[in-house]
Amino acid sequence: MTDKKTIKPSHRRIWFAAPLVLLALVLLIALGTWQVKRMYWKEALLADIQQRTQAPAAPLAQIEAMAASGGDIEYRTVTVSGTFDHAKEQHFFATFQGQTGYYIYTPLHLPDGRSIFVNRGFALYDMKEPAKRAAGQVPGVVTVQGLSRARLGSKPSSLLPENDMAKNIYYWKDLSAMVGSAGLPLGQVVPFFVDADATPNPGGWPKGGVTLIDLPNNHLQYAITWYGLALALVIVVGFAYVRGRRNSRG
């Protein structure tokens, strides 16, 4: 049996550090593997979104049925007909193609008496008031094609300002607030939005087709980083072990 007193200090350090090194190695490999799984998930999600945005437009009733059954309605092409209530439009502060302005959310009254908020597109900052883009205030029954967008359950970030209801300026898409501000009965409003496509409006404003699908997929880069750190750890520990062995022999 080996006497503990004969174990050299360098060997004691190795035995003490070995569990920590092993734990770190397992953790780094696990993080890299998790990022690989996230990469495959993100690739599938992006492919699914691309398929949705390029699919034939579905009637509003079909998207509503999907939402009612708990399905994911984000970025699904939809067509809806009704009459815009321009007097009750709501203004979402935004930037588009490097310019500051507003997305114009307008209630579209449906034939069955309900309404749905349509993001008609972008208007420049100094065109917030409807009178400055009167040509785009389309009268009568219209048909809008675009993408369905789910409502937000709450403010997505504490860094965002609170919506300024008095000035009709929104910093996050609060459907309940828009409904209340427009004086619409909440139970008679479709519980999601539609982003209109890029079909030109009279007068050129607002400009549709503003939906941004920005889902970065950097998971491969992250996986390589974690796996690289794991390899570096193995190399460093290996060199340290070899050097320790040489010193103990000397």
TrEMBL record:
Family, as annotated: Belongs to the SURF1 family.
Source organism superkingdom: Bacteria
Keyword Membrane: yes
Location relative to the cell: Cell membrane; Membrane
InterPro entries, per the entry: Surf1/Shy1 (IPR002994), Surf1/Surf4 (IPR045214)
Keywords: Cell membrane, Membrane, Transmembrane, Transmembrane helix
GO annotations of cellular component type: plasma membrane
This protein's name: SURF1-like protein
Bilayer topology term: Multi-pass membrane protein
Transmembrane segments: 14-34, 175-194, 224-242
PANTHER family with a match to the protein in the record: SURFEIT LOCUS PROTEIN (PTHR23427), SURFEIT LOCUS PROTEIN 1 (PTHR23427:SF2)
Primary location group: membrane
One Pfam family named in its UniProt record: SURF1
The species this protein was found in: Rhizobium skierniewicense
